[in-house]
Write a structure and sequence with these properties.
This protein has about 350 residues and is of the alpha/beta class. The protein folds into two domains: about 50-145 and about 270-335, Bordetella uptake gene, domain 1 (D-Maltodextrin-Binding Protein, domain 2), CATH 3.40.190.150; about 145-265, Periplasmic binding protein-like II (D-Maltodextrin-Binding Protein, domain 2, 3-Layer(aba) Sandwich). The protein contains eleven helices and ten strands.
């Protein structure tokens, strides 16, 4: 029979065994914790691993839709994944806007942002659905374009100065891309500035409004110039004014509101890309760089110029500041217009 070990020796051996066990458990725990902590960084570094979706807050065929489709192919090439354009019109752009706000902040759901879903739409519904500054990550500016006040060449007024006479008796119905769209706001501003009696006819996007404007169903249409340059050149639509300080090079015969003595109608729509709040910095930076490269591409610059858009490069922080400033600047006009969606 082996002699019993002294109590002190047994205690020493037990302490060593426990120390080894605890050290191994602690090491495994730290390794696992480190892996978990590094997982978001690894996920961001691998981004994107699946197709991206750009939500457009208007129907297909309008200005926002055209811009989204113009950037989708080069963005797909830059990121190595398909980029799908998904049209979600309605409620002054807030249906699509709310879908993006509710999406996971992983960079796979984006929005073709512009004045309507951010600066106008949220303030025209009974309950504001989101905060356009705090509930989005504004990734990159793409460009700006003026609004065009247009007429059917046969049934509408010949010039903007003729509008007061034409509008006598309530004949001057004007169409826009929808309630709370930038066209709607500019129309209401025009009514106020020129003391007109006009009725707003809302459409679900610029494309259906164009059809009725060309057909003469409505005599006037107000929208971002982007989609209408070809129809102006062909004579199907007559441009009465653009809401910018200088004339558009694509519609040089169309006077500006400043020339016509209506500087209070200055309004420029912007196009950008935004995502849900809380996008990882690595994802935002990757998208911002890809989009900056796209708007610097001469082919995209030419395409934008064909659509009356001036390409603009802004950092994410600069774009966020631009959005917040426009929201604040336009608030009085939206309130005065009493637009309801």
């Amino acid at each position: 029979m082996k002699p019993l070990l002294p109590a002190r020796s047994c205690a020493r051996d037990l302490t060593r065994a426990l120390t080894r066990a605890l050290t191994c458990d602690l090491t495994r725990t730290l390794v696992c914790f480190g892996a978990v902590a590094l997982w978001p960084l690894a996920a961001s570094a691998a981004y994107p691993e699946k197709p991206l979706r750009i939500v457009v807050t208007f129907a297909a065929g309008g200005a926002s839709d055209i811009v989204a489709r113009a950037i989708s192919e080069p963005l797909s090439k830059a990121l190595g994944q398909p980029v799908i354009v998904d049209n979600k019109p309605g409620a002054g752009g807030t249906i699509g806007g709310l879908e993006v706000v509710r999406a996971a902040p992983d960079g796979y759901t984006l929005m073709l942002s512009n004045s309507t879903p951010l600066s106008i739409g949220p303030f025209t519904v009974p309950k504001q659905p989101y905060d356009p500054g705090r509930q989005f990550t504004h990734i990159a500016m793409l460009g700006i374009a003026p609004v065009a006040i247009m007429a059917n060449p046969k049934t509408g007024p010949a010039t903007l100065k003729d509008l007061p006479k034409y509008a006598v008796g309530g004949a001057a119905n004007f169409g826009s891309g929808g309630p709370g769209s930038i066209g709607h706001i500019v129309g209401e501003m025009t009514k106020d500035a020129m003391k007109l009696s006009m009725t707003h006819v809302p459409y679900r996007g610029g494309a259906p409004m164009t059809t009725d404007l060309i057909a003469g169903t409505i005599p006037l249409g107000i929208d971002v110039i982007t989609a209408y340059v070809p129809m102006m050149k062909s004579g199907q639509i007559k441009g009465l004014a653009v809401t910018s300080r200088s004339r558009s090079p694509l519609a040089p015969d169309v006077p500006t509101v400043v020339e016509l003595g209506l500087p209070q109608l200055l309004a420029e729509n912007y196009f950008g890309v935004s995502g849900p709040a809380g996008l990882p910095k690595e994802v935002t930076d990757k998208l911002s760089k890809a989009l900056a490269d796209i708007v610097a591409d001469p082919a995209i610059v030419r395409r934008f110029e064909e659509l009356g858009i001036t390409a603009v490069k802004m950092s994410s922080a600069e774009f966020a500041g631009f959005v917040n400033k426009q929201v604040n600047d336009w608030a009085p006009a939206i309130k005065a217009a009493d637009v309801k969606n």
